[in-house]
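Much of what follows relies on a compact textual record of a protein's fold. Each token is a code from a learned vocabulary of local backbone shapes. The record below shows the convention in full.
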Amino acid sequence: MSDTPSTSADTDAERPLRILIGADTFAPDVNGAARFAERLAAGLVERGHEVHVMAPAASRKHGTWKEVHEGQEMTAHRLYSWRWYPHDWLRFALPWRIKQNSAKILDRVQPDVVHFQSHIIVGRGLSVEAQKRGIRIVGTNHMMPENMLEFSLIPKAWQEWAVGLAWKAARRSFSRAESVTTPTRRAADFLERATGLRGVHAISCGIDAHKYAPNWEPRTENRIIFVGRVTHEKHIDVLLHAITLLPDELDVKVEIVGGGDQKRNLENLAAELGIADRVTFTGYVTDEELREAYHRASVLAMPSIAELQSIVTMEAMASALPVVAADAMALPHLVHDGENGYLFEPGSAEDLAAKLRLVLEAAPEEYRRMKEESLRLIAAHDIQRTITTFENLYRGKPVTDPVTDNAPAALSE
């Protein structure tokens, strides 16, 4: 057999790809799914691939143009969008035009692969039209329909029915994909149970760990930080109630970093609880300001019960922070109880306060051990490994899920 075919095949297998990433939320939106899509797109451009992003326009201006994200230039196809006013910033592409828009962009770009980040609108249109054209499809799920209920205006009596419909819609879109991924094994198991899909890959969103640095200076105060969207599903109220249960001598300060529709309500709650002078709501911050906030903090508190991975928790770990997190969804895969922090009973302010005390009252050598353990555990979540895994999926190669989320046996499902 001639060597020529295999050499040609090898060359073709390694050629740069033209990749179309579809997302219902993308920068300048600030949330885990948008940040992952942005970092993935930038990392792929840095490796020499041609990347196009299809996402709702962030304003009334829509069309195709070049955008720079994470220092890398890519082509953005911004769809005409409407603002969803029950939410504080969300804009969405028009569902009844999504197939037409997807067809037009696919025919213009002619990608080697389509990678959609949400099945709701953009992913639905792209998966339908890409399948018609025989284009390889990869789908990633970052969403739980239950998290969208408070913004949906659906009456409570109908919400269970609506969640069932949402998961059926997810099954239809993801079943068109050659490969389906989600950030952790627990999230993958959840998606398989909810949709009946099989073979869902657990691939970490990953972070650029080198962008975060530990602060080894001795602590001069007890500062608890929360980072994320200030919305109901994050359960920040549980954290505020927990603060009232901590001893006065700890003189705890709290920093809530992020914006959202619950900011005013939580400010009022802090005032009602008598802790307003100890709680700072920063709103949205720059990346540099966020890194400084991690350096100021003693511990990250993550009371959310619906995290499919939690990029914030990974950023805190890369900053060598101990973490106290709810024992729910994917968080136990990042926070190993008694090692780099503690897990608390979801919704329990009493248990959260008790676990925060274990960190804040730890002897200096024990506190440093938790910091070092966070750094050790986050090493497996390097975004370069994530990008390599997706490159292989884009080329149709078999992949082995990176081992990134081995929770202690007692916490396994």
About this structure: Residues 209-380 form a domain with the Rossmann fold fold (CATH 3.40.50.2000). The radius of gyration is 22 Å. Residues 1-9, 405-413 have pLDDT under 50 and may be disordered.
